[in-house]
Amino acid sequence: MTYRIGELAQALDCSVDTLRFYEKQDLLKASGRSPNGYRFYNDNARRQLAFILRAKAVGFSLEEIRELLEIRIHPAANCCEDVKSIAQRKLELVNAKLQELEKIRRALDQIVDACVGGSLPATECSILEALELEALELETEEPEA
After folding, report:
1. Which residues of the chain, if any, have pLDDT below 70?
2. Residues 118, 68 share a domain
3. What is the count of structural domains for the chain?
4. pLDDT at 38
5. Which domain covers residue 74, as residue numbers?
6. Predicted local confidence at residue 84, as pLDDT
7. In this entry, which stretches build a coiled coil (predicted)?
């Protein structure tokens, strides 16, 4: 089956601009062009776009997707461990980001809990004071030698 760009985008619930972007990034190629210049795509391109969209949805970067596509296109030159390594690196990054977000959440919890809220003027806001103190502490810290 062949698809025009809009048909493929609609079939996989993405925008035409997204499809063009992936083409510019050399992640996807049109199967050809019609006599009037329209791009068209075959089922292989549809599967590749679906792969890209799923990989993006689980957090892989464009460069990681490029690596995965290269392995997918040339599976005999690679092993499952190559794919696992890419996924493992991504998982480690996600876990590190989650730890950082947890630190941020705890800090926000503290300053929100310390604030009485209400109709006090903002000059008396404990959240603004806490952020001001944090900024001052960062400014006065000695650089590590």
Report:
1. 134-145
2. no
3. 2
4. 87
5. 1-78
6. 96
7. 84-111
Residue in the block written with tokens 């944090």: 134
What token pair was written down for 73?
């296109």
Domain at 70, CATH number: 1.10.1660.10
Residues 67 and 85 both lie in one domain: no
Is the distance from CB of 53 to CB of 14 less than 8 angstroms? yes
In 3-state terms, what secondary structure has residue 42?
Answer: coil
Please tell me the predicted confidence (pLDDT) of residue 137: 62
As a whole number of angstroms, the distance between CA 122 and CA 120 comes to 6
- The per-residue pLDDT for range 123-142, each reduced to its tens digit, is 888 888 888 886 556 566 66
**Calpha distance 56→40 (Å, rounded):** 23
What's the angle, vertex CA 75, arms to CA 70 and CA 12, rounded to 5?
60
How far is the C-alpha of 21 from the C-alpha of 130, rounded, in Å? 43
Report pLDDT for 125.
87
